[in-house]
Amino acid sequence: MLEPGQWVRHPDRPDWGDGQVQSVVGERVTVNFENAGKVLVNARVVTLEGVAP
Length: 53
Fold this sequence. Notes:
Number of strands: 5
Order of helices and strands: EEEEE
Oligomer: single chain
């Protein structure tokens, strides 16, 4: 279960770096990645990996 403030990584986009979850609305997760900025991720399609801050 993802929640705002949690740090995550996109398994298929390691070049984006770590990201902090900004919001979770149903399956829509907005993440602010270090190298890609804000990205809207469909949690049904992508399983974000949790990382230590």
